[in-house]
């Protein structure tokens, strides 16, 4: 088993929206015994409510407007500089609505996590709840994964599976999936901060053991 990290694990969170996942991370890192510490929250949108959540929690915030840059590479280079000023061990995407360049993803290889509202590899991209309902799926959920150059395609760390009810709408499903996101994202971040989670050549490793292709599964 890997030796556990004893010192703090500084985390930078990137978001574009309401930041309920950020809130779950803030709450979980404030429990006293978590080695994860959110050093900064960065958004590409000045009006993202997630920035307000961070300010309310006394966390450093930055805004970098992608519209002020010519092209993805230029924005990602400026974003990298902004992130690296905080020297984080981990970068967490929490509803960051940008496609990342290959250079950005490579720079943070093995220390970049994302959460996605579907049971990957199903339903990469948007409108996942609607698509799960249209397909008649009986199960749906969310996934935390390491980010690689393939959009929503990196090695899975943990998935939460929920049953789809007959009367579900995209909204009701989204609400229940969100509830699960708030459980599994803090869990994965904590594993990483404790030195238990890493990215190996074959996939995600937990306590030095290769996780199944689906990641660690949680069923409710
Ligand atoms: C979540 O559904 C997450 O899975 C996706 O973006 C959404 C962010 O929600 N990547 P919130 O801003 O954390 O509430």
Automatic annotation (TrEMBL):
SUPFAM superfamilies hit by this protein: Formyltransferase
Catalytic-site annotation from UniProt: 116 (proton donor)
Binding site for (6R)-10-formyltetrahydrofolate: 72, 97-100, 114
Pathway in which this enzyme or protein is active: Purine metabolism; IMP biosynthesis via de novo pathway; N(2)-formyl-N(1)-(5-phospho-D-ribosyl)glycinamide from N(1)-(5-phospho-D-ribosyl)glycinamide (10-formyl THF route): step 1/1
GO biological process: 'de novo' IMP biosynthetic process
Chain positions recorded as N(1)-(5-phospho-beta-D-ribosyl)glycinamide binding sites: 19-21
Sites annotated Raises pKa of active site His: 152
InterPro entries, per the entry: Formyl_transf_N (IPR002376), Formyl_transf_N_sf (IPR036477), GART (IPR004607), GART_AS (IPR001555)
Stored Pfam families: Formyl_trans_N
E.C. number: 2.1.2.2
Reactions accelerated catalytically: N(1)-(5-phospho-beta-D-ribosyl)glycinamide + (6R)-10-formyltetrahydrofolate = N(2)-formyl-N(1)-(5-phospho-beta-D-ribosyl)glycinamide + (6S)-5,6,7,8-tetrahydrofolate + H(+)
UniProt superkingdom: Bacteria
The keyword Chloroplast is annotated on this UniProt entry: no
UniProt key word Calcium: no
Record-level Gene Ontology MF annotations: phosphoribosylglycinamide formyltransferase activity
Gene Ontology cellular-component annotations: cytosol
Keyword field: Purine biosynthesis, Transferase
Family classification: Belongs to the GART family.
Cited function: Catalyzes the transfer of a formyl group from 10-formyltetrahydrofolate to 5-phospho-ribosyl-glycinamide (GAR), producing 5-phospho-ribosyl-N-formylglycinamide (FGAR) and tetrahydrofolate.
Xref: NCBIfam families: PurN (TIGR00639)
HAMAP family: PurN (MF_01930)
Protein name: Phosphoribosylglycinamide formyltransferase
Protein source organism: Pseudomonas fluorescens
Gene encoding the protein: purN
């Amino acid at each position: 088993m890997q030796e556990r990290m004893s010192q703090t694990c500084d985390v930078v969170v990137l978001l574009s929206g309401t930041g309920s996942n950020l809130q779950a991370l803030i709450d979980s890192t404030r429990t006293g015994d978590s080695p994860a510490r959110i050093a900064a929250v960065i958004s590409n949108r000045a009006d993202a409510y997630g920035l307000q959540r961070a300010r309310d929690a006394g966390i450093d915030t930055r805004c970098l407007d992608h519209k002020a840059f010519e092209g993805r590479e230029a924005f990602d280079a400026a974003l990298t500089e902004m992130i690296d000023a905080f020297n984080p061990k981990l970068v967490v995407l929490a509803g960051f609505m940008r496609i990342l360049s290959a250079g950005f993803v490579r720079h943070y290889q093995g220390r970049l996590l994302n959460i996605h509202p579907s049971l990957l590899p199903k339903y990469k991209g948007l409108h996942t709840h609607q698509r799960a309902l249209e397909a008649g799926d009986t199960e749906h959920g969310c996934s935390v994964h390491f980010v690689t150059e393939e959009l929503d395609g990196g090695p899975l760390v943990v998935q939460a599976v929920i049953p789809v009810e007959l009367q579900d709408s995209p909204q009701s499903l989204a609400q229940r999936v969100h509830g699960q996101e708030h459980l599994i994202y803090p869990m994965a971040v904590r594993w990483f901060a404790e030195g238990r989670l890493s990215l190996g050549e074959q996939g995600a490793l937990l306590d030095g053991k290769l996780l199944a292709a689906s990641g660690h599964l949680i069923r409710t």
